[in-house]
């Protein structure tokens, strides 16, 4: 059984909908109870890098986050607390009821078929959409949240799916990172999308936008040691596929202009 559901979105949604994000605990509770009652053979829970202690993410030049860095607990308010709580619930369902559970902490999954507009989209999709809008409209400018120096890693969906299956069918009981270790600034991500689109844009920085932590990256030591693997699809490769899909979706919905 796979629990991949949550009421969530990008940083703008998470920071402005903390209660709604916390209510995802109802999904997790009902899923775990159903799995227990059905005597499920194995239960997978998709957690998040938002569980990590905020004090360890204050510098854009961040030290990659190890699994033990989730404690002492100081996760992202709302969404991160719900994820950390459900991690513990998975542990206790395994200990008390014998339900085999597996937990992976996703680090910014992106790719085709993801949300790309409407307020819930994450940075890779939002930047692709903004570059496409600028290219098709001829305005030649892009709004970037913050000063663009914050850092993140982004995992392409194909790596995520492979990791889920390996973790689900492996013997790792504790929560484990599932993310790319390829760190990039927000400005660097814009550079990549501009290069894919063949355009250079004037950048307008929105400094009062929701920003999240200054830096976050995945330490993949555990997954390398336990599975002999880690997410490895280059960001440039994944973003090219994502851009192409969003471009087609944008044109199909809005035509060559909006």
Give the structure's gist in a few sentences:
The protein has helices at 11-16, 18-22, 24-37, 79-97, 123-137, 157-168, 186-197, 221-227, 235-254; strands spanning 2-3, 43-48, 101-106, 109-110, 141-145, 151-153, 155-156, 176-178, 183-185, 202-206.
> What's the name of the CATH homologous superfamily?
NAD(P)-binding Rossmann-like Domain
Shape: globular
Poorly predicted residue ranges: none
Give the tally of β-strands: 10
> What is the rounded Rg?
19 Å
Q: Spell the H/E element sequence.
A: EHHHEHEEHEEEHEEHEHH
Can you describe this structure?
The protein has 258 residues and is an alpha/beta fold. It has a single domain (2-254), classed as NAD(P)-binding Rossmann-like Domain (Rossmann fold), CATH 3.40.50. Helices cover 43% and strands 14% of the residues. The chain is built from 9 helices and 10 strands. It has helices at residues 11-16, 18-22, 24-37, 79-97, 123-137, 157-168, 186-197, 221-227, 235-254, and strands at residues 2-3, 43-48, 101-106, 109-110, 141-145, 151-153, 155-156, 176-178, 183-185, 202-206. Helix 3 (24-37) packs parallel to helix 4, helix 5 (123-137) packs across helix 7 and helix 7 packs across helix 9.
Strand and helix map with partners:
Elements: E1 2-3, H1 11-16, H2 18-22, H3 24-37, E2 43-48, H4 79-97, E3 101-106, E4 109-110, H5 123-137, E5 141-145, E6 151-153, E7 155-156, H6 157-168, E8 176-178, E9 183-185, H7 186-197, E10 202-206, H8 221-227, H9 235-254
Helix pairs in contact: 3-4, 5-7, 5-9, 7-9
